[in-house]
Design a protein that fits this description.
By secondary structure, the chain is an alpha/beta fold. It is built from 31 helices and 26 strands. The strands form 4 sheets. It has an 8-stranded mixed β-sheet. The protein has an 8-stranded parallel beta barrel with strand order 13-14-15-16-17-18-19-20, surrounded by 6 helices. Helix 15 links the parallel strand 13 and strand 14. Helix 5 packs antiparallel against helix 6, helix 17 packs parallel to helix 18 and helix 27 crosses helix 28. The chain is globular and about 95 Å long.
Length: 830
C-alpha cells in the first residue's frame, strides 16, 4: 500500500542539518519507507537519513514529491502531512548575520598610510602575531588507499572505528558545552546516519579497504553538496570531511599529518579549517584566523566566535604570500589585515589592544561582586548549564550558583539510560566547581522537543502536551530512582537541590517526594535535600497554597509557562505573536505566584529565556523574585544593568505594566522608564592631564576612545568621523594653543566635556598658526542637543580668550582641583 504527498519547501535556507534531523527523527518512528524526490534536480532522498536529505539539495520553494510505502502508509501520510504543515516551517533558523562589514579606515589610522588587504569579518577583535600557514589535513583520494584484503575483518574495523569516534563525540558533547558541544552532536548525527553507515559497508563490500571506504563515501557526499546552489548547504561539506578525517585517524593514523610548531602569537592562515582542527589548535598561541574559505554559518566560524577569536574569511594565499613568517595585525572590526606594519601602525594597534583590554576590565569590574540593585535589593544571578564546562564558564562570569542543570543531555544520545555512577561523577564535578554555591539539578526532561533513544516514547501529534518529564517517570521508575540516588550522593559534596519538571498536580509532587525520601533513607543520608518543581504548567498557579506545603522551592520555566498560558506553540511562527513573556497576563500570573510563594516563606527563581531579557529585568526585580538563571555570557551584562535599577521604582513600574494592554505596550513603557541614568557632563574620568599623542588625528581618536570606554558613546568610529566632518568645515583650533573639537552626533549617549593636556603640542591648523597643547572635546547627542550645544561651545570659546583661564588650566596638576576649576568657570553654561 502506498500514498504520496507534495511539499513546496518553505524554509529560506532549504533542508539543511537542523530541519533534516527533525524530519529524519520524525520519520524514523514509522515502519513505512518514506522517500523524497526533488523535482528540480531529480535527486531522491531517504527521509529517515539526515545526510540523504541534505544531499537532496532541497532549496526554498523547491517542489518535492514524497512517496510512502508499507505498513500504515495512510496513517503515516496523514501524520507526516500535519508535520510538514505545522512543524517544518518552524525548523529553520536565520543565517547568522555578518559582523560589522568592512568599512573605511578611521582617519587616525588612515593618516599612518597603512596598506591593508581586506576580507569578510567573521568575528570581532584585534590581534597581533606572526603570520603562519596551517598545514591542514588533506583527504586522500580513494585510489591512494588500500583495497580490502579481508572483508569481514575490514567491516569489523570500520564498526570499531565508528563506535570509538561516537564515544569520543558523546564525551565531547558532554564536557565541552556551548557551541563546541553543538558541533560534536551534529557530527555524531552524521556518524550515526543510516545512509552514511550503509555506504561505508557497501564500499567495503565492493572491495575497498576500511580507509578507502571512508574516502569513497566522503567524496560522494562532498561531490553532492558542492553542487548545491545554497552556500549554507555547501558549507556542510566541511562537517562531512571532518567526520571522515576523524574516522581515518582511527583506521590509518599513519596518513595523519604531524603536529605543527606555532610561535607564541600566531595569526593562522588556512585554505579551510575543520571544526575538530580548530578545537585541536593551541588557543593560547593562536590569536586570530585567516581563512580562504568558510562562510559565516560554518561550524568552524561559529566555534571561533564562541572562543572570541578575530577571523577574516575570503583571504587568499596569494594575498598573504609575502607576509608569511612576519608580524601582521588583524583587525576583524574593520575587516583588514596589515602585513609587516611599520612602527607607528604597530603602536596604534598596541594602544587598541590596551583599550580593548581596559574595556573588558571595566565591564568585569562593573559586573563583579554581589548582584544587587542600586538600593541594595539582592537578586541572585545563576547560570543554566548542561555540563561541567558550562558551569566553569558561568562561575568565571560570577554566577551565584547553578539555577538549572539540564541533566537530559546525559540521556539524549545514549542507547540506554546512564547509570548511577556515571551520573554521580557528572553531578559531583559540577558541585565541586560550585565551591559552596547552590546547584539546582533538574531531573531528566525527556519528551516534547527532546526525545531520547534510551527512553522510548510513542509518536504524538502534540508531544509538548503529552508524555514527557515526570509523566514518563512511573514507567521509567528505575531510571528515575537511579538519578535521584546519584543526586543524593552528590549532595554530600555541597548544597544541592532537586527540581522536578512538568509537575501539574499535587499527586505528582507527593509521588516524587516519596521516592526521594525512600532513596535518601536507603542511602542512609541524614540531611534532607530540598525538593522543588518547575512552575511551568498553569494548573499549579491555582493550587499554590497547597503546593507550598509539599515542595521547598519553585523555578519558573518561562518558556513553557508562556506557551501553555497562551496555548501557543513556541516553535510555531504562525502563532508567534501570542507567545510573549512580557504580556501583562503572564506578568500578572507570575507576580501573583511570587506573592503567594513568599507568603509561605518559599523561594522562587526563573530560568527561562526571559531571565536575560533587558526589558524583563526591572519587572522581575519589581516582583521580588529571588533568582534569575541564564546562560553564562549574559551574566555580566545583567549584573551591570541590575546595579542601575531601583527596586522601589521597579515595583511602581510593574504596577503600570500590569495595566498595559499587551506586550508591546509593556516594552515601550519599560524602554521609556529604563533610560540610562543621567551622568554629569564632566567627571574626573573625563580629564587626561598628560596625553602623549603625536598628532591631531591621534588626539581626536584618544578622546573619542575615552568617551567609548566611559560608555558615553556607542560607536567610536562613527563618533570620530562626526568630529572630522566638523573639522572639514573649519578648524576648531581657536588659537593660544587651545582647540575645542565638537559635534552633535547620534553616537553620543551622554553630553560630555573631555579635557586633554598634551605632552607635546600638535599642529591643529589653528587660526593663529600656533600648535595646540590643550584640547577640550564637546559632545552632544544630535537628537536632544538643542541650543545647549552652541551655548556650551560659545561659553568655552569666550573662556579660552581669557589668559587667566588658559594659565589656570595649564598650571593646575591636581585632578580634583582641575575638575573644580572647570565646573566653577562653566557654571550656568549647561
Amino acid at each position: 500500500m502506498s500514498h504520496s504527498l507534495t511539499l513546496i519547501c518553505p524554509l529560506p535556507n532549504g533542508i539543511h542539518a537542523r530541519p533534516a534531523s527533525r524530519i529524519a527523527e520524525f520519520c524514523a518512528g514509522f515502519g513505512a519507507a518514506i522517500r523524497w524526490r526533488n523535482q528540480r534536480n531529480g535527486q531522491w532522498a531517504d527521509a529517515k537519513s539526515v545526510l540523504s536529505l541534505i544531499a537532496g539539495d532541497i532549496l526554498f520553494n523547491d517542489v518535492v514529491d514524497i512517496e510512502i510505502d508499507g505498513e500504515g502508509a495512510a496513517r503515516v501520510a496523514d501524520e507526516l502531512g500535519r508535520f510538514l504543515r505545522q512543524t517544518l516551517p518552524c525548523c529553520d533558523e536565520p543565517v547568522a548575520a555578518a559582523p560589522a562589514a568592512s568599512r573605511a579606515l578611521p582617519r587616525s589610522l588612515a593618516e599612518l598610510s597603512p596598506s591593508p588587504c581586506f576580507g569578510q569579518p567573521a568575528g570581532q577583535g584585534v590581534a597581533i602575531g606572526e603570520l603562519c600557514v596551517h598545514r591542514g589535513f588533506r583527504m586522500p583520494e580513494p585510489a591512494e588507499l588500500p583495497l580490502s584484503t579481508d572483508r569481514d575483518a575490514d567491516l569489523a574495523a570500520l564498526a570499531v572505528a565508528r563506535r570509538t569516534l561516537a564515544e569520543q563525540l558523546r564525551q565531547q558533547a558532554e564536557h565541552q558545552g556551548g557551541e563546541a558541544a553543538g558541533v560534536s552532536r551534529a557530527h555524531l548525527a552524521i556518524l550515526s546516519d543510516p545512509d552514511f553507515r550503509a555506504r561505508l559497508d557497501a564500499a567495503v563490500a565492493d572491495g575497498a579497504g576500511p580507509a578507502r571506504a571512508v574516502a569513497v563515501v566522503v567524496a560522494h557526499y562532498r561531490a553532492q553538496l558542492s553542487k548545491s546552489a545554497s552556500e549554507y548547504l555547501r558549507e556542510r561539506e566541511m562537517d562531512i570531511r571532518d567526520v571522515g578525517r576523524r574516522l581515518l585517524e582511527a583506521l590509518a593514523p599513519e596518513i595523519q599529518r604531524a603536529g605543527e610548531a606555532l610561535p607564541e602569537a600566531a595569526l593562522l592562515w588556512a585554505e579551510d579549517l575543520a571544526p575538530s582542527e580548530l578545537l585541536a589548535l593551541d588557543r593560547d598561541k593562536v590569536k586570530g584566523l585567516l581563512l580562504a574559505r568558510g562562510g559565516l554559518t560554518s561550524h568552524t566560524i561559529i566555534l571561533a566566535r564562541a572562543f572570541s577569536l578575530p577571523v577574516l574569511t575570503g583571504v587568499q594565499r596569494a594575498a598573504i604570500a609575502d607576509g608569511i613568517g612576519r608580524t601582521a595585525v588583524l583587525d576583524a572590526g574593520l575587516g583588514a589585515l596589515f602585513q609587516s606594519p611599520d612602527t607607528v601602525v604597530l603602536d596604534y594597534y598596541r594602544e587598541e589592544e590596551a583599550l580593548l583590554a581596559a574595556q573588558r576590565q571595566r565591564l568585569a569590574k562593573a559586573s563583579g561582586g554581589i548582584a544587587a540593585s542600586a538600593d541594595g535589593h539582592r537578586l541572585e544571578l545563576a547560570v543554566n548549564i548542561a555540563s561541567a564546562a558550562e558551569a566553569q564558564q558561568g562561575f568565571a562570569q560570577g554566577a551565584d550558583g547553578v539555577g538549572l542543570f539540564r541533566t537530559e543531555m546525559l540521556f539524549m544520545d545514549a542507547d540506554e539510560p546512564p547509570g548511577e555512577d556515571e551520573q554521580f561523577q557528572c553531578y559531583a564535578e559540577v558541585v565541586r566547581l560550585a565551591a559552596g554555591r547552590p546547584v539546582i539539578i533538574r531531573t531528566f526532561d525527556i519528551g516534547g522537543d527532546k526525545p531520547a533513544r534510551c527512553l522510548p516514547a510513542p509518536q504524538e501529534s502534540n508531544p509538548f502536551l503529552g508524555y514527557r518529564a515526570i509523566r514518563m517517570y512511573p514507567d521509567q521508575e528505575a531510571a528515575f530512582r537511579a538519578q535521584l540516588r546519584a543526586i543524593l550522593r552528590a549532595s554530600a559534596l555541597g548544597p544541592v537541590k532537586v527540581m522536578i519538571p512538568m509537575v501539574a498536580t499535587l499527586g505528582e509532587a507527593r509521588w516524587a517526594r516519596r521516592l526521594l525520601e525512600e532513596e535518601r533513607a536507603a542511602l542512609g543520608r541524614a540531611e534532607p535535600v530540598p525538593l522543588g518543581i518547575m512552575l511551568e504548567v498553569p494548573s499549579v498557579l491555582f493550587q499554590l497554597d497547597a503546593f507550598c506545603r509539599e515542595v521547598d522551592f519553585f523555578s519558573v520555566g518561562s518558556n513553557d509557562l508562556t506557551q501553555y498560558l497562551f496555548a501557543a506553540d513556541r516553535d510555531n511562527e504562525r502563532v508567534g505573536n501570542l507567545y510573549d513573556s512580557l504580556h501583562p497576563a503572564f506578568l500578572a500570573a507570575l507576580n501573583q505566584a511570587a506573592a503567594t510563594i513568599h507568603r509561605h516563606g518559599r523561594w522562587i527563581g526563573l530560568c527561562g529565556e526571559a531571565a536575560a531579557a533587558p526589558h524583563a529585568l526591572p519587572l522581575f526585580l519589581g516582583m521580588g523574585l529571588d533568582e534569575l538563571s541564564m546562560s553564562a555570557p549574559s551574566l555580566q551584562e545583567c549584573r551591570r544593568r541590575l546595579r542601575e535599577l531601583d527596586a522601589d521604582r521597579c515595583r511602581e513600574l510593574l504596577g503600570r505594566a500590569l495595566a498595559c494592554a499587551d506586550g508591546a505596550e509593556v516594552r515601550a513603557l519599560v524602554a521609556a522608564a529604563a533610560a540610562r541614568p543621567a551622568l554629569p557632563m564632566l567627571t574626573a574620568d573625563c580629564l587626561m592631564p598628560d596625553a602623549a599623542w603625536g598628532s591631531k588625528a591621534a588626539a581626536i581618536k584618544g578622546l573619542v576612545d575615552r568617551l567609548w570606554l566611559l560608555e558615553r558613546c556607542d560607536d567610536r568610529y562613527g563618533m570620530e568621523e562626526d568630529l572630522w566632518l566638523r573639522e572639514q568645515a573649519y578648524s576648531t583650533g581657536l588659537g593660544h594653543g587651545f582647540a575645542i573639537p565638537h559635534a552633535k552626533s547620534g553616537h553620543v549617549l551622554h553630553p560630555t566635556l573631555c579635557l586633554a593636556r598634551l605632552a607635546q603640542p600638535v599642529d591643529w591648523g589653528a587660526s593663529d598658526g600656533q600648535p595646540v597643547d590643550m584640547v577640550l572635546l564637546l559632545a552632544f547627542n544630535a537628537a536632544d542637543a538643542g541650543a545647549a550645544h552652541l551655548k556650551f561651545f560659545s561659553r568655552l570659546a569666550r573662556l579660552v580668550m581669557h589668559e587667566d583661564f588658559r594659565q589656570a588650566l595649564r598650571a593646575e596638576r591636581d585632578p580634583e582641583r582641575l575638575l573644580a576649576l572647570l565646573r566653577d568657570r562653566l557654571e550656568g553654561a549647561a
